[in-house]
């Protein structure tokens, strides 16, 4: 059978093949590298909070302006596969209603308020409500929604020229009993009632008190950080006693010349043994200035659990929530820069937000030295310690600007400095464990993880290690090296046995794409689990497959239901007003820019499917399945319109990477 297909081709059955020309392989390196808050070149965000976008102070202490420009030029060259200058504007309404009045409250600014307080006037200018379809209304044929009986009522409302559609549903209101956007909600018809004789008269917002009380406990997102805290950080008034004591300690150590500029492994490693041990992370010696309590770290019992990888931009809260609903056990937020946390950046602090369904949740930090990473960890522990189960240190990020500043995968070549960072973070985090995510090494053919991992396990006290089996240099087209992952696991276990230490969980990472593939990787390499990244982006239901040890021939309708679920979670997180709705649309399109790559396994001659296999052009088993396979970004926008209504004229979606031959929508 397999001989019929050239290597690297997804074996699509002949009856579904439209053209034998394979689709181009999407550029995952570009997708990983094109980050919102990391890249210094591309600066765009909806949230309008610019403070995290400026080149981060302190990360590149010895880089001149000219050097930085050269770096940016080099970076640009490298990012040929990316769409540069993606801009996503926050969509606003022409006549904007005061959010207090919108929520049925009184605005303390009264007539001084710069937003309108006239609900009637606002509603007559407001675009028509969006119809959010129920699961039962979804269909596999265009327009992919069955109108249902509700249409008649909708027409009646249209006759009153009202923006309201009483047949729609507001998923936030149905889940939580109230909608914080009130009159500004684009699904308002679902939670407003007329007081008087018609919709255009007096309107009042409906609140289901009992549901709201229940939701306050079970459905409220966690880790909102007060703007005052961010201000304190920005103005350097935020207390950081543990970090200050630790940094003083390492600075005063005769073996540490200048911690800020330690670069080479030799310099970094010199004389550090006295300070570092696995136990140091758990119990520390007191310093005269700051008495330290003995702190027992929470142990991570992660063996056998499924782990969704940290994913910049696409690993947002709604996506993580979707994966949880499909079987993911452990989730980690998108990589955040230590310096931006310390600068009080609103965008960076939003990365710690956690949904209550995220049972085991961590925050990932990137940085290049103890003086930023340790205080950032301390602030996270103080502000969110109760609701953060681990803090992960990024030692894998390959992006040039991150690497060249000494962060991400650059730390792989600076073990001494890495030890100081881990020891300090351990102290700063109290009982919250530190975990670490590494790559095999920096350069191809020069793997270092097998030496580094046993040291990390025995000397610096991490709660879990994840190894992505590629070097920094390696592209995604080449498969991860699971032989090497196996070698590293063995090296760690041998060291632990020698040192009489309990085994810590080790996760491997790279190319997991099916249940069979996942379990084979676990059994072969001896890891405690596989962290799943692109596999989850392309098919979020991979977690169900893994848990149930089966391959799921998911139907197009079921996939549409999951897209609906993502839209629901997006609206709940970003908001149901015009701005939130279009931010949801943007992140839905980001998600679809990976999901179109799923080739339904029912169309394949044989299994398992492989992550790097390219399909020929094919049609699905129904129109919806064909649409879901489209690499055209305009089709992703079309799919978003099923749930979020027509995209505004001014709204465009430019995909992250040029994976297809089509123009962007716009
Ligand atoms: C779009 C994208 C974003 C990523 N963002 C992060 C990140 O923020 N932090 C991180 O440690 N790794 C990040 N990675 C790397 C993944 O977590 C993972 O290690 C890698 O993709 C290998 O796993 P896979 O073969 O299952 O995709 C990203 C990867 C992709 C494709």
From TrEMBL:
Sorted UniProt keywords? Flavoprotein, FMN, Metal-binding, mRNA processing, NAD, NADP, Oxidoreductase, tRNA processing, Zinc, Zinc-finger
Recorded catalytic reaction(s): these are: 5,6-dihydrouridine(47) in tRNA + NADP(+) = uridine(47) in tRNA + NADPH + H(+); a 5,6-dihydrouridine in mRNA + NAD(+) = a uridine in mRNA + NADH + H(+); a 5,6-dihydrouridine in mRNA + NADP(+) = a uridine in mRNA + NADPH + H(+); 5,6-dihydrouridine(47) in tRNA + NAD(+) = uridine(47) in tRNA + NADH + H(+)
Listed cofactors: FMN
All copies of domain C3H1-type, residue ranges: 92-120, 164-194
Q: In which domain of life is the source organism classified?
A: Eukaryota
The record's annotation in SUPFAM superfamilies points to: CCCH zinc finger, FMN-linked oxidoreductases
Q: Which InterPro entries match?
A: Aldolase_TIM, DUS-like_FMN-bd, tRNA_hU_synthase_CS, Znf_CCCH, Znf_CCCH_sf
Q: Does the keyword Zinc apply?
A: yes
Q: Write out the ranges of the annotated region (Disordered).
A: 24-87
Q: Where is the composition biased (Basic residues)?
A: 67-87
Q: What is its EC number?
A: 1.3.1.89
In its UniProt record, a GO molecular function of this protein is: flavin adenine dinucleotide binding
What's this protein's function? Catalyzes the synthesis of dihydrouridine, a modified base found in the D-loop of most tRNAs. Specifically modifies U47 in cytoplasmic tRNAs.
The entry sums up its family as follows: Belongs to the dus family. Dus3 subfamily.
Name of protein:
tRNA-dihydrouridine(47) synthase [NAD(P)(+)]
């Amino acid at each position: 059978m397999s001989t019929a297909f050239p290597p690297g081709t997804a074996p699509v059955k002949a009856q579904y093949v439209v053209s034998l020309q394979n689709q181009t392989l999407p550029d995952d390196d570009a997708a990983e590298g094109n980050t919102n808050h990391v890249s210094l070149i591309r600066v765009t965000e909806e949230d309008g909070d610019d403070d995290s976008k400026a080149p981060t102070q302190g990360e590149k202490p010895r880089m001149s302006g000219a050097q930085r420009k050269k770096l940016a030029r080099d970076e640009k060259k490298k990012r040929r596969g990316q769409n540069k200058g993606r801009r996503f504007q926050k969509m606003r309404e022409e006549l904007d209603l005061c959010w207090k009045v919108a929520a049925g409250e009184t605005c303390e600014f009264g007539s001084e308020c710069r937003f309108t307080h006239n609900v009637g006037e606002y509603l007559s200018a407001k675009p028509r409500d969006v119809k959010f379809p129920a699961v039962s209304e979804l269909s596999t044929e265009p327009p992919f929604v069955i109108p249902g009986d509700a249409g008649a009522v909708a027409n009646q409302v249209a006759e009153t020229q009202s923006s309201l559609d009483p047949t729609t549903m507001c998923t936030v209101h149905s889940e939580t009993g109230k909608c914080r956007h009130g009159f500004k909600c684009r699904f308002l018809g679902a939670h407003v009632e007329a007081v008087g004789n018609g919709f255009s008269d007096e309107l009042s917002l409906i609140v289901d008190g009992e549901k709201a009380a229940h939701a306050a406990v079970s459905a409220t997102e966690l880790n909102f950080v007060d703007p005052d805290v961010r201000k304190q950080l920005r103005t350097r008034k935020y207390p950081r006693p543990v970090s200050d004591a630790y940094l003083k300690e390492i600075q005063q150590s005769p073996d540490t010349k200048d911690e800020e500029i330690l670069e080479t492994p030799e310099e970094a490693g010199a004389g550090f043994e006295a300070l570092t041990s696995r136990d140091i992370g758990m119990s520390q010696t007191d310093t005269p200035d700051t008495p330290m309590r003995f702190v027992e770290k929470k142990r991570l019992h992660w063996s056998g659990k499924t782990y969704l990888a940290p994913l910049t931009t696409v690993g947002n809260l709604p996506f993580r929530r979707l994966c949880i609903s499909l079987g993911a056990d452990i989730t980690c937020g998108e990589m955040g820069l230590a310096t931006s946390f310390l600068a009080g950046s609103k965008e960076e602090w939003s990365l710690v937000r956690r949904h209550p369904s995220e049972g085991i949740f961590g925050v990932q930090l990137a940085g290049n030295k103890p003086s930023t990473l340790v205080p950032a960890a301390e602030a996270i522990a103080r502000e969110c310690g109760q609701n953060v189960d681990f803090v992960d240190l990024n030692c894998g990020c390959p992006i040039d600007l991150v690497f060249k500043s000494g962060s991400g995968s650059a730390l792989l070549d600076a073990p001494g400095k890495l030890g100081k960072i881990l020891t300090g973070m351990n102290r700063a985090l109290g009982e919250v464990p530190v975990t670490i995510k590494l790559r095999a090494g920096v350069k191809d053919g020069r793997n270092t993880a097998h030496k580094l991992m046993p040291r990390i396990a025995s000397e610096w006290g991490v709660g879990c290690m994840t190894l992505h089996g590629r070097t920094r240099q390696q592209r995604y087209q080449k498969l991860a090296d699971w032989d090497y992952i196996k070698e590293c696991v063995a090296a760690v276990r041998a060291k632990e046995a020698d040192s009489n230490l309990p085994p810590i969980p080790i996760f491997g990472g790279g190319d997991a794409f099916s249940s069979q593939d996942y379990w084979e990787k676990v059994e072969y390499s001896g890891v405690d689990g596989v962290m799943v990244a692109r596999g989850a982006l392309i098919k979020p239901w991979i977690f169900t497959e893994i848990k149930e040890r089966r391959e799921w021939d998911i139907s197009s309708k079921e996939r549409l239901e999951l897209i609906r679920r993502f839209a629901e979670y997006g609206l709940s997180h970003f908001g149901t007003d015009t701005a939130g709705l279009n931010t949801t649309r943007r992140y839905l399109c980001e998600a679809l820019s990976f999901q179109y790559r799923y080739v339904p396994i029912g169309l394949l001659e044989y299994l398992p499917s492989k992550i790097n296999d390219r399909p020929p052009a094919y049609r699905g088993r129904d129109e919806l399945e064909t649409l879901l396979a489209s690499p055209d970004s305009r089709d992703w926008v079309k799919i978003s319109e099923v749930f979020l209504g027509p995209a505004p004229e001014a709204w465009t979606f430019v995909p992250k990477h040029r994976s297809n031959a089509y123009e962007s929508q716009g």
